Amino acid sequence: MSSTSSAASEKARSAPSRGRRGWLRQGVLLMLAMGCGVLVANNPFRPSSENPDATARGYLRFKEILSYVDRDYADSVDTEALADYAVGQMLEKLDPHSVYIPARDREKTDSFLQSDFDGIGIEFNLFRDTMTVVAPLSGGPAEQAGVQAGDQILSIANKRVSGGHLSTIRLSELLRGPRGSSVSMELRRRGQAHLLNLTIPRSRVPNASVDAAYLVDGQTGYIKVSRFASNTYDEFKAALADLRRQGLTRLVLDLRGNPGGYLDRATQLADEFIGGSRKIVYTDGKGEQYDSQTYARVAGEFEEGALVILVDEGSASAAEVVAGALQDHDRATIVGRRTFGKGLVQQPIALSDGSELRLTIARYYTPSGRSIQKPYGANYAEYRADVANRAAHGELQSADSIRFAKELRFRTDHGRTVYGGGGIMPDVFVPRDTLAHSAYVTKLLSHGVARAFALSFYQAHKAELEGLRFEQFHATFRISDAQLVSLAAQAAQVGVTTDVASIRRCAPLLRNQLKAYIARSAYGPVAYYTVLREQDPELQRALHVVSDSTAQLALLGK
């Protein structure tokens, strides 16, 4: 429209003027064209090929509104924060797992799936606003500098952290930093009158995802995988090979609480158990470019032998892919409770400002065709509350409370019935331990009371513990009634009201948990899991199933 007006206006002018202005206009248009080319080249916006007009209108509408808010709103606003919020709300309308990660949060988000990180390497507990070392990581900078379990960290980089009301996340950030840099720390150690001042160089610290791997008896192995990180498959393969050398012939693989991670690491792990070239998982998306099928392709380390997979409501995504594949092929018995039900595939898309969009592009399906994803609607809060709702409806206590739609019935290789559309249902259901999840025990653990008590005990009896082999400690050590009373008194100091009935009812569990924490500081993570096993009904059931070959073959329809 403006071009037409301009042309009419030019006709009213003299020829020389028209010529000069024409050349000027051509120059301006050329500059604009060049400028537009740069803008287009640097603008990541590309309308959808299926619905380009609507996509373009939405894009321009948001841009226009944000411009008006920035220019004319009565108060000053943070337009970047507003844009982040708007994007987050938009993605929630799609599904529960498409997310936007601001640039400032990407490193923290990515570190969860890395096999190592830059830091000093300590595990710590936060109790009564005091940071206490649970254990320095083996071979890490902190251990080499002399940091010991039970040391209280008073300051980091000249910043007071004891009594500073800092979160666990913030404390971890203070300890981490670029490789080669150093961090100064002030420590208090039991039995020493003077404070310790250390300067510890940061370096690469292993971030293991295989938390424990050991033989329960001469034949039965136990491996705990906490997530599928970049080095998980290598860690797992090394652990399995070591247990095989020790005589392993049957295995319990613990995926409880495993939230997933890298799909390819999970399928590699599953391939260690699945023979031939059978399917492990497939994805189905909007276009063929997002469809994929993954098959077993290597001769695995443990394709024969009794296998049990432990799962619960915290097992999600890649963990469910492993459990689903092994169940569909009747390769493993699944023990525990129904898994979370996260079967959506996210593709990470790096954005120009360093932020990242993780957009759902497909769904996971098990070899039999089951969708892992549980139902979701527009109510994001309700989706997040699903596990709590399961507990309220009795599902975590009784398998009879679980309902699957008949049309979502599938068959395993040997004809057993399995269901899709809501996670992986175990072959052997184990109800959740009500004592372990009682309100009193949950408060003791969440406030860090139990771990703080164990650390204090470890410090007071360190010399005695060092004189015992773990086998001696495990066979003879017991938490007394007086120590449970002392634990309750310590808890009361931080607002956990003493509940005598709960203490009496949960006494065996609390004794075991405290003993496990002490074993962690004195003997390491394998000792911790070995002690915990005694009060772990799910693991006890799994060990029974894996050792009863006749019963397991019947469960698998063989």
UniProtKB/TrEMBL annotation:
<dbReference type="InterPro" id="IPR005151">
    <property type="entry name" value="Tail-specific_protease"/>
</dbReference>
<keyword id="KW-0378">Hydrolase</keyword>
<dbReference type="GO" id="GO:0004175">
    <property type="term" value="F:endopeptidase activity"/>
</dbReference>
<keyword id="KW-0645">Protease</keyword>
<dbReference type="GO" id="GO:0030288">
    <property type="term" value="C:outer membrane-bounded periplasmic space"/>
</dbReference>
<dbReference type="InterPro" id="IPR029045">
    <property type="entry name" value="ClpP/crotonase-like_dom_sf"/>
</dbReference>
<keyword id="KW-0720">Serine protease</keyword>
<dbReference type="Pfam" id="PF17820">
    <property type="entry name" value="PDZ_6"/>
</dbReference>
<comment type="similarity">
    <text>Belongs to the peptidase S41A family.</text>
</comment>
<protein>
    <submittedName>
        <fullName>Peptidase S41</fullName>
    </submittedName>
</protein>
<dbReference type="InterPro" id="IPR036034">
    <property type="entry name" value="PDZ_sf"/>
</dbReference>
<dbReference type="GO" id="GO:0008236">
    <property type="term" value="F:serine-type peptidase activity"/>
</dbReference>
<dbReference type="InterPro" id="IPR004447">
    <property type="entry name" value="Peptidase_S41A"/>
</dbReference>
<dbReference type="GO" id="GO:0006508">
    <property type="term" value="P:proteolysis"/>
</dbReference>
<dbReference type="InterPro" id="IPR001478">
    <property type="entry name" value="PDZ"/>
</dbReference>
<dbReference type="GO" id="GO:0007165">
    <property type="term" value="P:signal transduction"/>
</dbReference>
<feature type="domain" description="PDZ">
    <location>
        <begin position="98"/>
        <end position="163"/>
    </location>
</feature>
<dbReference type="Pfam" id="PF03572">
    <property type="entry name" value="Peptidase_S41"/>
</dbReference>
<dbReference type="InterPro" id="IPR041489">
    <property type="entry name" value="PDZ_6"/>
</dbReference>
